[in-house]
């Protein structure tokens, strides 16, 4: 009985280790978007092969900007061109979002990092910003809602792992 419980816990840990994980940037890294920046991740063969990388910040800036589309997940890294049109600040994250028709949603989130520099704006940025960014609202309610939604992605991964562990323990009993 004890062996089955240990085996179940080991299986749950192994499943969580196999998920798509963003390895760069790390927590509290200072990121300079005035020049190209490389995002890195770890994946396994069953992860989505193509996805979008989105820059988000729900820490008062309400940023939601696709910085790369149709990224080949097998590469393990992607060099993003210089980014403009976002405010300097902390609390930024990259979301890796699936573009598969049958599996849309956030696959991975980076740790929170700081944006210390951005590229100069171009005329294309104005169009891209209106297409990909949420407009800042003066209402505190919208900031709280966006922060809650941003936190949801991180909680989903933890909930899945907890569910697998719980199910494995029940099977062992």
UniProtKB/TrEMBL annotation:
<feature type="compositionally biased region" description="Low complexity">
    <location>
        <begin position="131"/>
        <end position="145"/>
    </location>
</feature>
<keyword id="KW-0812">Transmembrane</keyword>
<dbReference type="Pfam" id="PF10342">
    <property type="entry name" value="Kre9_KNH"/>
</dbReference>
<keyword id="KW-0732">Signal</keyword>
<dbReference type="InterPro" id="IPR052479">
    <property type="entry name" value="GPI-anchor_Adhesion_Reg"/>
</dbReference>
<protein>
    <recommendedName>
        <fullName>Yeast cell wall synthesis Kre9/Knh1-like N-terminal domain-containing protein</fullName>
    </recommendedName>
</protein>
<feature type="signal peptide">
    <location>
        <begin position="1"/>
        <end position="19"/>
    </location>
</feature>
<feature type="transmembrane region" description="Helical">
    <location>
        <begin position="147"/>
        <end position="172"/>
    </location>
</feature>
<dbReference type="InterPro" id="IPR018466">
    <property type="entry name" value="Kre9/Knh1-like_N"/>
</dbReference>
<keyword id="KW-0472">Membrane</keyword>
<feature type="region of interest" description="Disordered">
    <location>
        <begin position="120"/>
        <end position="145"/>
    </location>
</feature>
<keyword id="KW-1133">Transmembrane helix</keyword>
<feature type="domain" description="Yeast cell wall synthesis Kre9/Knh1-like N-terminal">
    <location>
        <begin position="24"/>
        <end position="115"/>
    </location>
</feature>
């Amino acid at each position: 009985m004890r062996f089955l419980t240990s085996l179940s816990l080991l299986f749950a840990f192994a499943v969580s280790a196999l998920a798509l994980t963003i390895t760069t940037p790390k927590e509290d890294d200072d990121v300079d978007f005035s020049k190209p920046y490389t995002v890195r991740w770890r994946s396994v063969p069953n992860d989505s092969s193509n996805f979008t990388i989105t820059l988000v910040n729900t820490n008062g800036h309400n940023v939601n900007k696709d910085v790369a589309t149709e990224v080949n997940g097998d590469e393990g890294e992607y060099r993003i061109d210089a980014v403009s049109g976002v405010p300097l600040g902390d609390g930024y994250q990259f979301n890796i979002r699936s573009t598969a028709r049958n599996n849309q949603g956030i696959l991975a989130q980076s740790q929170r990092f700081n944006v210390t520099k951005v590229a100069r704006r171009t005329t294309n940025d104005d169009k891209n910003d209106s297409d990909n960014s949420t407009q800042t609202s003066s209402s505190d309610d919208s900031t709280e809602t966006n922060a809650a939604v941003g936190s949801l992605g991180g909680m989903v991964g933890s909930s899945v792992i907890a569910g697998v562990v719980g199910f494995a323990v029940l099977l062992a009993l």
